[in-house]
Amino acid sequence: MKKPFVTLQQVEEMARQYPTPFHLYDEKGIRENARRLQKAFSWNKGFKEYFAVKATPNPYILKVLKDEGCGVDCSSLTELMMSDACGFFGEEIMFSSNVTPKEDFALAAKLNAYINFDDITHIDYFEEIAGMPETVFCRYNPGGHFKIENRIMDNPGEAKYGLTREQMTEAFVKLKAKGVKNFGIHAFLASNTVATEYYPKLARILFETAVELKNETGAEIKFINLSGGVGVNYKPDEEPNDIMLIGDEVRKAFEDIMIPAGMGDVSIFTELGRFMLAPYGHLITKVIHEKHIHKDYIGVDACAANLMRPAMYGSYHHITVLGKEVAEPDHKYDVTGGLCENNDKFAIDRILPEISVGDFLVIHDTGAHGFAMGYNYNGKLRSAEVLLKEDGTTKLIRRAETPADYFSTFDFSDLFKEEKYKGISKILV
Question: Which range of residues forms the domain containing residue 99?
């Protein structure tokens, strides 16, 4: 069973300061995991993790990861702005975007970020905006199905991302002619894998492609970016990824392919989001209603606006009823939020201990793609984010939205210029 990193007593104390629901992050767990990743790839002198900002876009989290030697992987203007505010610059930033607006490329260039081209047409487009840097990356999409031991892991051929193999050669030749001196290769072929074989298989594909491209074009390939895709065990009966084993298997592929080709100085990069953060986040929510009709429903003060994955993908997130960790799980519930959508359910037919109004629930593994995917449907307001520090104290790292925030984009309208709307959040006090 999954064990929360907080107790009922801790959450009761937090809830007096931060009304539920709120996302809670475990600083100690985040730091320890970042160090494990660094250790797993320490055999590669140039290794660097570029945390996928889209997974958990919070500057306080980014600063924790910066302390641990991580860079950032950005894909939009605001992610670049947040990274800049946190002190990331130059080679600490990887800009991997698609269908990219001019202003995004312009800021990435201003920050001297690594540019990862998603399409061959972006080369001329970017050059017109900012000139051409000496180091660039190209994102490779081999097409077809990505398989591990005859298991289809994902379908790159249906993905909108990256260059074909032929375009990779064309792009490298074109970029060399424009003065590029150092090249990187990037690929993302499967999402949230809990198969140890994923990264090593991906690495072999990229290593072999790098050798081919060097021989075909004479390009100086300095970096291989394995991107993300290493997932977490959302279900308690799943085995988690062994990052030390994964790192060692990538090392073997490196020694088999890169070193004989005279490319032993190539740096390995990763862009992990879910693996870095998901297990170290909880959505803390309180039971506010129970309903017994054709099924038994537990209504909580969180909803899909706080955690979209179960409603959007049918994803499993484990639930712990705090204070009842050892109680017999002998009740079947749907755990729901209050949106006017029937898919607003955190669990369906979940076997749990008996739940009462007032109980606190921990929804596990929300540290990545949790708060980040929040939205305001039904006028629901995004929750606070709280950091559980290593010393056991807590820090508010994002306040909860208020009705005033929700109406702020109407600040041009006379309808919301009356004093009662300027101070609308006071209604809730």
Answer: 26-272
